[in-house]
């Protein structure tokens, strides 16, 4: 219909061009019939090669018209010589065509080989790059490990060299309390301190919560609004308007109640 649009162009669905039937009058040889072997997609539309073929066919027909008749021995000999010369020209032309075709094939083969070499080079470069990246990552990880081990060993040597002679040092209380990783803030259990043994010191002891007299005193100090709760009954919703109509929300609640039941 008019409203339908196809997914393809008309040119994609077009068949070969129509060739009508023809009738050749007796005694006439149209030149157009020499192109009957050409079809759409195979020689049509005509290109440079087809034009050259048409020109050669015209030259050959003109040459055939100049051939002498075979009515005498001299004419027959002359006709044979002309035909041999034309045959040599045809063989030379065919050799040229074969050489051109071989050159085209050679160029295509060269392009394919160059493309194959380029692809192989790209693949080799990608592999080398990946191999180099892996070596770089391993190298960086090794360097980081060496640097961390070096820093650790330097810290250990620095700690050992603080008191090389084993002299007794006085306690620096200010330095200990400025360092939150020192013994006053984080004592070690290996020096005889067990924080779980004195856990009862952290228990909250309150007179108002642990004794009955404290609870009574705490209850007496609270206002009546805390101990005696007053509950107000909710007021019923107005389901009827001033004019006497039932509200839409009330009708909806009734319908929902019925559905729920």
TrEMBL record:
It comes from the Eukaryota. The keyword tRNA processing does not apply. Belongs to the CFAP91 family. This is Cilia- and flagella-associated protein 91. Signal peptide: none annotated. GO terms for cellular component: axoneme. It holds the Pfam family CFAP91. InterPro entries: CFAP91 (IPR026720), CFAP91_dom (IPR032840). Residues 4-156 form the CFAP91 domain. It comes from Nestor notabilis. PANTHER family: CILIA- AND FLAGELLA-ASSOCIATED PROTEIN 91. It is found in: Cytoplasm, Cytoskeleton, Cilium axoneme. Keywords: Cell projection, Cytoplasm, Cytoskeleton. Its main location: cytoplasm.
């Amino acid at each position: 219909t008019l409203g339908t649009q196809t997914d393809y162009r008309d040119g994609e669905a077009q068949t070969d061009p129509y060739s009508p039937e023809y009738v050749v009058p007796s005694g006439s040889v149209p030149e157009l019939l020499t192109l009957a072997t050409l079809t759409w997609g195979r020689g049509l539309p005509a290109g440079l090669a087809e034009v050259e073929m048409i020109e050669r066919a015209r030259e050959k027909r003109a040459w055939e018209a100049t051939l002498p008749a075979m009515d005498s021995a001299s004419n027959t000999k002359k006709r044979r010589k002309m035909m041999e010369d034309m045959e040599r020209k045809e063989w030379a032309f065919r050799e040229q065509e074969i050489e051109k075709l071989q050159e085209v094939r050679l160029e295509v083969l060269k392009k394919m080989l160059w493309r194959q070499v380029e692809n192989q080079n790209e693949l080799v470069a990608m592999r080398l790059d990946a191999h180099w990246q892996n070596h770089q990552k391993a190298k960086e990880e090794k360097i980081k490990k060496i640097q961390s081990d070096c820093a650790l060993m330097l810290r250990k040597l620095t700690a050992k060299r603080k008191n090389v002679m084993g002299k007794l040092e006085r306690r620096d209380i200010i330095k200990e309390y400025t360092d939150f990783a020192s013994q006053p803030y984080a004592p070690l259990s290996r020096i005889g301190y067990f924080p779980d043994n004195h856990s009862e010191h952290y228990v909250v002891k309150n007179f108002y919560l642990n004794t009955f007299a404290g609870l009574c005193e705490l209850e007496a100090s609270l206002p009546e609004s805390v101990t005696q709760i007053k509950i107000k009954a909710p007021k019923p919703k107005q389901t009827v308007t001033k004019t006497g109509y039932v509200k839409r929300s009330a009708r909806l609640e009734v319908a929902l109640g019925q559905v729920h039941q």
